[in-house]
Structure formats: structure tokens, C-alpha cells
């Protein structure tokens, strides 16, 4: 009998929560021979990432995973041997009682948000005793050996390596993208940002032509304001100076990976696309999820302190300046121009960082090992 894992996801905002849990569920089922049930409270968001799914189905099978509609109350069925509450979500009513009633209570894990902050290493794997006698364990993804690692399928880097120029051209043509010779290809997936205009102004006058690919999302309002267009249709192409802007449809996770592989620079947001851009091995710009009282700045600085190790002082300063400008509402033009002399160095650094992260066990593997050690 396969071991059953129940993963619970509340879609709070955007697609980061469901993006992470859907990738994790697929990998646990495909690579670790587990029976995985993914419980989602907003199947409409799930369909955006998995177009073959049905938004109204209370139960369906997708890519080896049993996807279930989040129940108002836990149904009368067996609890899995592992229960994961993603990102501190509240479990369905009655589930904790069902867990406590088991002869051998399941391993209860809180899969937390990704962070490079130093305190994460000390909290990873710690228990939190509950009033009902259960123990909830904290599991932190991260970038160091003493954390839970990053999501990475076993075949990911091999597929990335096999994605050659011919595959790249075919993928872009299927999206209706034709890039002029010598143009730099950039992807942009971000939250609303008032500094978008200053960055686009810089790209428009840059000596190097740029083709900017913008998947459908929240940044389109700011992009339309800069272009003077109230509505930006998918597939529309706009040109201003050296800059070509093209709006893409919202694509599946696998196609988004390929889009990142195609590009010379990737501006990403949140958690899921942030990690996938690192596996793409190209320079990137992270738009971190905004928190009250700018608490997200500490997380940004913690990652920058880690990521810039190995860069020259000048390149590290330029990269840090760009990320701070994008996330702290500062003009982007000067920061973008300051990065250009270091392009080759930051490109090589992105590949070195990918290799260093790939040398560590991935998140799914560490979760499975954590479960085995708990038996």
C-alpha cells in the first residue's frame, strides 16, 4: 500500500500558494511513489496552472495526483500518514480531531514560506505541541543545507540543458513571438510597481534592443499606463524606441519554465516563479511579496546577502541596487544602466548559483526523508 500524503492549500492571493503545492504534489507522486491528495479551496486558480483541470469537480485526477475541493468539514474518510498545511493555513474543521483519533497520529507538517533569513536554520524541523496532544512540525524551504531545500524535479536540469536553440525558437513561435537578431529577451511577471515606467524608459533608449515578454497578470495596468493603452490584448505587440513589448497569455507551469529558459533576463515575483527563475540559470530580478511595515525588505536583504557571495564588489553593488530600486520604489533607470557593465559576470554567477543549489537535496526528497526519520 502506498503511503498517503494530504496537502492542504488555501489560495490567499495570486498563484504562489497553489503553484508551490501543485509542483510538490506532482513530484511526490511521480518520483516517490506516494498517494497524494491535494486539497484546494479555489479550484479556479488551480485551473490557471493546470488547464486540463475542472474548476467545479469535487474530486479529479491530474498527473497522478488526486485533487480535491477543500471541504467545509473533514469527511468520514481515513487521514493520510502525512498531513501538510501549506503556509500556515487552517486545516478543515474536524481534521485535527480525526488526526488525534488515529492509533498512530500522522506526521503534521507546516510547510512555511521560503526565506534566506538566518533564523530559518534554527527553526527548521522544530515541533510545536498542540493542545490536543498532536505535534506540528515546522518545515522551512531554504537555500542552505540546514533548511528544507528548494523544489526541483529530478529531470529539471536535464530538460533545461536539452532545451536548445531549435526548441527555443519553436516554443517562442508557438507563442507568436519573433525576436529580431541581437535583441535581448526579457520576461516580466510582477506585482503592480510604480517604477515600471522608469525601467521601460531606460530600455527604450538602450543601445541594445530589448523584446519584453509580459505574461497576463497584475503588472498589465502599469504597462498599459506607460503605453497609453487602456486595455492590452494578449498577443499585442507595441514598440517604442529600442523596446518591443509583447503581452503573452497566462501559461501553464511547464510552459512558464520554458519561457524562463528562453530569456536572457527574468523579472519574477513571489515564491514559485522566483525559484524557477533560479533554475533557469539566467540573471533575474525578484519582486518580493509586499508585507506590512516593509517586513519583506528584511527577507529581500537576507537573500541578497547570500546570493551576491562570489560576485565582485562592483557587480554585487550593482545587482543589489537594481533589486532595491525595484522593491523600494526608487527610480530604475540609473540602477539598470549601472548593471550593464557587469552583464557577463552576473550571467556566469546565475549559472554557478544554480549548480550550487542543485548540489543539495531537493525539497520533496527532504520531506520524504523527514517522514522516514519520524517512523
UniProtKB/TrEMBL annotation:
GO molecular function terms noted in the UniProt entry: translation elongation factor activity
Span of the signal peptide: none
Catalytic reaction(s) noted: dTDP-beta-L-rhamnose + L-arginyl-[protein] = N(omega)-(alpha-L-rhamnosyl)-L-arginyl-[protein] + dTDP + H(+)
Superkingdom field: Bacteria
Swiss-Prot/TrEMBL keywords: Elongation factor, Glycosyltransferase, Protein biosynthesis, Transferase
InterPro entries for the chain: EarP (IPR016633)
Family statement: Belongs to the glycosyltransferase 104 family.
NCBIfam families assigned to the protein according to its UniProt record, in alphabetical order: efp_Arg_rhamno
Function summary: Protein-arginine rhamnosyltransferase that catalyzes the transfer of a single rhamnose to elongation factor P (EF-P) on 'Lys-32', a modification required for EF-P-dependent rescue of polyproline stalled ribosomes.
Name listed for the protein in its UniProt record: Protein-arginine rhamnosyltransferase
Gene that produces this protein: earP
